[in-house]
Amino acid sequence: MASDCEPALNQAEGRNPTLERYLGALREAKNDSEQFAALLLVTKAVKAGDIDAKTRRRIFDAVGFTFPNRLLTTKEAPDGCPDHVLRALGVALLACFCSDPELAAHPQVLNKIPILSTFLTARGDPDDAARRSMIDDTYQCLTAVAGTPRGPRHLIAGGTVSALCQAYLGHGYGFDQALALLVGLLAAAETQCWKEGEPDLLAVLRGLSEDFQKAEDASKFELCQLLPLFLPPTTVPSECLRDLQAGLARILGSKLSSWQRNPALKLAARLAHACGSDWIPAGNSGSKFLALLVNLACVEVRLALEETGTEVKEDVVTACYALMELGIQECTRCEQSLLKEPQKVQLVSVMKEAIGSVIHYLQQVGPEKQKEPFVFASVRILGAWLAEETSSLRKEVCQLLPFLVRYAKTLYEEAEEANDLSQQVATLAISPTTPGPTWPGDALRLLLPGWCHLTVEDGPREILIKEGAPSLLCKYFLQQWELTSPGHDTSVLPDSVEISLQTCCHIFLNLVVTAPGLIKRDACFTSLMNTLMASLPALVQQQGRLLLAANVATLGLLMARLLSTSPALQGTPASRGFFAAAILFLSQSHVARATPGSDQAVLALSSDYEGIWADLQELWFLGMQAFTGCVPLLPWLAPAALRSRWPQELLQLLGSVSPNSVKPEMVAAYQGVLVELARANRLCREAMRLQAGEETASHYHMAALEQCLAEP
């Protein structure tokens, strides 16, 4: 407590006789006045920090909670005694009790949190020593509660966050203690703090950001360390972003020592996570600032990872990785990029050198380090680079591929640890709290885009196959697909799950085209085919998932050509359901649309396909080609297509629109399907003739179809 006192005797010297006398008086008190007087004597005899646990417990046993409770809530003080003196005495006793962690978590302490919180913002004489002592004791109580396992939750529920914010913003006595306690609460329970006290926390952020922008002394470096904790999980106010960017630009544009520069890089990384590049202004100043950020980050990465015999500052390097990711995103952005073309060229060059250092570091990682968060962070930045650039550093990347496959497999097989690693990376890079967007929870998700590019190239593809990557990817795809199956709420799935599934499909498509023998001999692809067949019928019916359905349909059709002798494809219910769903996907892409002032309709994209056709059209054409290839391999397919009425409806569609509105590549795709169906089945030919197939073929110059329909 804040009052003066004579020191308690050491246990080895026996009990403090003065304290014993006062405790006796307290126990023998017959009324409130005598008890009050005895309590004053007790508080003068000890300080909470100067007594041992046993003595503190004896004081508690003598006092209990009843009288301190009355002191805190009383509204009638004795004559000549200011009312806050009673409250100060009650708080002083609680502060003494709270030095014992068991008592700090006592319900009788926890239910005082709302009352204690009001003391932080109560008005009064700022020079009153008793009031200052009460504020110090209040902070001591609240800090002790915060140190208990459930303390932060109780403090937040009791309104402490808003009270601390107001106390800090008021800059009254003890405001620095308010900020320290706020930092602790945000570190322990960020989400709950923002849920309960967002307006007040934003006000603190505005104040800190403004101070940061104006600071000319060493306080700006201290603010760099504090500010990441006060960035909200939602939108950061624009005025705060302006102040933060301006402050960082001044700091990073100066010649600094590492202890000054590193907190600034970590704050910049936190902003990059929370806001992408939106916090950086457009124009010349913004582009220069972004280029400076990325250059500094790359230099830091190279210095840290290339120097031997020095300990890597993993938190700083991980923050630099985040800034490099921002640089990669801006360098690959075609529209509204902050960077000019010469800046992009220069940054790609320095990032290439930094990525070379990352590869060198990962080559040294042994099995004992594979579960360390910094390794995960290093794989993440490499994955971000490979997603956009695989031509440079090709030799080094190929040498590292075996490690990457083993690493991804290790984390996949220990999925819970992988998810924990992602959170540790977030902590390592930014602050003691989780940053805004969650880091992906598995290494495979980080590597999929890069592997998609690499499977097109002979050398890297052979290495990936040799190391067992296709089998691992099949297992991963099936695991991710389970998350989208019935019984799971797909509305709450992160977008990353669907993106990962689509990227896996692209990798498999590459393997189907470049390594068909692998598809035929590896049993994992049979399991994959079974999953695709079972899943597509429901998938094509789901709103908003057309692109994933296109990937699944096209991949399944291409694999069916290679696995056509499999028993699963011999007209089984699953295979029939799959091809019916594939026909639905292929047939619903285009419709006849009337045009003003014309008697003849034109061929147009249907509404569901129109908005995503740029991403869809390659899959659609590939799917049409694959379906065409399946018809002669699966004798039951042509009759099934006829029963679906697709060939008849396709001819009807072509007959109802102007031939000039149908592009040559569309004519070729339609003719391919119609010709194979006509060749495969006599009933198909007859149905096409009845639908004016010969006339339609003539109008569209489909010579092959016209010739086929002319045959008996």
TrEMBL record:
Domain of life the protein comes from: Eukaryota
InterPro entries: ARM-type_fold, Neurochondrin
GO biological process: bone resorption; neuron projection development; regulation of neuronal synaptic plasticity; regulation of postsynaptic neurotransmitter receptor internalization
Pfam families xrefs: Neurochondrin
Gene Ontology cellular component annotations, sorted alphabetically: cytosol; dendrite; glutamatergic synapse; membrane; postsynapse
Similarity annotation: Belongs to the neurochondrin family.
Protein name according to UniProt: Neurochondrin
The species this protein was found in: Delphinapterus leucas
